[in-house]
Amino acid sequence: MSKTKRIRSVATADLRTALKDPAQLLLIFVLPLLALLILSQVTGFFLLEAGDAVETSTSGNMLMPVALTASLMLCAFVRLVTTLSHDVSSGTISRYAMTSLRLHEFFLARTISNAIFFSIQATFLAAVAYVLGWQPQFTWHIAAGLALGVLAFTSFAFVITGLTKGSAAALAFAYGFFFIAILCGVLIARDAFPSSAQVFLEALPTTALVELSSKGFLYRLPPQWAWISLGAWAAVTPVAAMKVFRWK
What we know:
This protein has one domain. It is mainly alpha-helical. 77% of the residues lie in helices and 0% in strands. The radius of gyration is 18 Å and the shape is globular. Helix 2 runs antiparallel to helix 4 and helix 6 packs across helix 7 (140-164).
């Protein structure tokens, strides 16, 4: 079997398994939809500065960056940690060592399946938001930021699973990191924290992704620190994933 066919086979298997698994469907579609519907009803929730709220014609441009960031984390990070941990504990991963599949091919296949799932997820959320009255605006910053986010979160899932050997600690860290990252700098504005804490928050991929997409929806240039932060995650985590994740 050629390299392309091996990658396609693993990605297709992941897609089929997820579509048959209620728990994965919950993470991919149900929870992001519920979050979007609930947060769209919360007055004063939105993250951007007061001036942004006045200048934009719809609150969707402030809500969608949060919804997209949370849904990307659920799909590309939490879901992947869950499935990788199950594959490790069940012995599926170790059996790959006896096949012609290479680790970087497996990583690429899961990155592709994550990208496909998130594309469907984002389209679904955008359609719901449009029905709720959102008037979408798109710039290349949004697409570039989300692409970097898919790579960074997928790689980080491999890193965490590799470090914990797929134990229960992997799931505990995944959900803990998700709630902390979403709460700090996403649901609660970065400016609400002390200046010393803001430096830490700017280093989180979630904060950077929200900043990139929110400015993109408003046709504004995002700050340089957001590109540096998210770009660093997307550059470093794939290398780390190949170092710490093993078949056995």
